[in-house]
What does this fold into?
Amino acid sequence: MVLVTGGAGYIGSHTTVELINAGYEVVIVDNFSNSDASSLEGIYGITGVKPTFIEANCCDREAMRRVFEAYDFASVIHFAAFKAVGESVEQPLKYYQNNMLSLLNILELMGEYGRQNIVFSSSATVYGDAEELPVTERTPRKPATSPYGNTKQMAEDILRDTVAANSSLRGIALRYFNPIGAHPTALIGELPRGVPNNLVPYITQTAAGVRECLSIFGDDYDTPDGSCLRDFIDIVDLARAHVVAIGRMVEDKNKERYEIFNVGTGRPVSVFELVNGFERSNNLKLNYRVAPRRAGDVMAVWADTTLANEELGWKAERELEDTLRSAWAWERHVRNI
Ligand code: UD1
It folds into this structure.
């Protein structure tokens, strides 16, 4: 049995599906702060299984204690967190409160109740403007440029120290690159509230006519086509990495009790390439224009995935065009078009 915090969210719902497909029982805790119950319906539609669901805030220690009392999970995947970079700059305490307190509660309760394994959702944001590319897990982290990024760095450190101090605890931090796309059934996907910050939801909403025009933030970077380079990882591939990480710890195959893995494709793709790939794979034209660079963006970041490939035996498999087709299929499902 696995506790999935934030299981109603974008990455959490896809991971829940893959966990169920792999035979795990799942307990979801979510407070719907950036999600809703439709993803739970989608999980049921795909798997035929209704995971146990508890509506609770991970920052509510007593509510979480009741979850630990009631369910005998050995492993936790902790997704629940705020993730908007810009908002975190405006409201840092909201981010520090939410993202740190929830992690502290879970780690404390895991210790108290003797639960062994945790996967933590980290981010390529911890590398910042990296000096070497692609980045390996040993590439030094740069000081965070946003409170959001700082919560990911601090959380990694808290996890490392907590695992070091508790010999029955194991932890894996997965550093996600840019997760995109949706489940091939189009029954679950990303549901951003308001104006999307991320590229692919902005693209699909523009294609749907919800947004007038996509702005490409910068075509004057020192890259082959002048736009930024990212490592876009399919959401189902990303979800599978969590199942492998849990299995590694459950089966006692981890080499160290705390480990970090990059979860990406290892392939840099430019913003222009992604936009053109979206048009090509979905056979449509997108309204876009070049706009000034966005403050805080790094020029390029992509993963060296050797460690995940060799140690986890995991690698990204889905073709980018299929991923981009799934993103559009999901948007059409959401908009009924
Ligand atoms: C962003 C966050 C990162 C976070 C991740 C979560 C920033 C600076 N970074 O990563 O910390 O972990 O989301 O998913 O916000 N782009 C456009 N037009 C748009 C939107 C994006 O051109 O309307 C470009 C961006 O300039 C960037 C690329 O597309 O070059 C990817 O942007 P985005 O999807 O926001 O991801 P990141 O910035 O890489």
Notes: Residues 2-181+232-263 form a domain with the Rossmann fold fold (CATH 3.40.50.720).
